[in-house]
Prior knowledge:
Elements: H1 2-44, E1 50-56, E2 65-71, E3 84-91, E4 97-101, E5 112-114, E6 119-121, E7 128-129, E8 135-137, E9 146-147, E10 149-152, E11 155-160
The structure holds FE2/S2 (inorganic) cluster (FES).
Amino acid sequence: MKQNMITSECSRRQFLAKLSIALSSIAGTLVAIPVVGSIIAPLFQKKPETWRAVGAIESFKIGDTVKVEYLDSSPLPWAGITAKSAAWLRRVSDEKFIVFSVNCAHLGCPVRWVEGAKLFMCPCHGGVYYEDGSVASGPPPRGLYQYPVRVQNGQVEILASPIPITTI
Ligand code: FES
């Protein structure tokens, strides 16, 4: 009789231990699925790209490099003013434009165009870029990203995409 009770106690304890492990595993899986999903989902999402008009063709002077603003390619409904982005646009000839990212290729700080020196300067860590966007000095590992650009119905348009720091 006593032997039976011990065996029964032992098997109940084993059952509860196994049940506890099983429930913990289920709970862990339920928590892990959305976390893992949110981590790997961006790998399978198509990069949102949209052509954005940045100004009428005649508003840009040949040889000038000016800052242009445009709406982010996939603005969130609550983004407000942060949905606005910027780029450096240069009109090279009647129909040819070059558009550089405003974000430094190092860590993304906004670079500014210094007309007198014909250089793009980054205020964060001293990154400097030549007129053609290539690296002149400092920590940037590569030149400034260049946006695809086109002229459509008298408007200059750039192919806007998420901040191109890590997409090159
Ligand atoms: S972010 Fe521009 S040099 Fe570091």
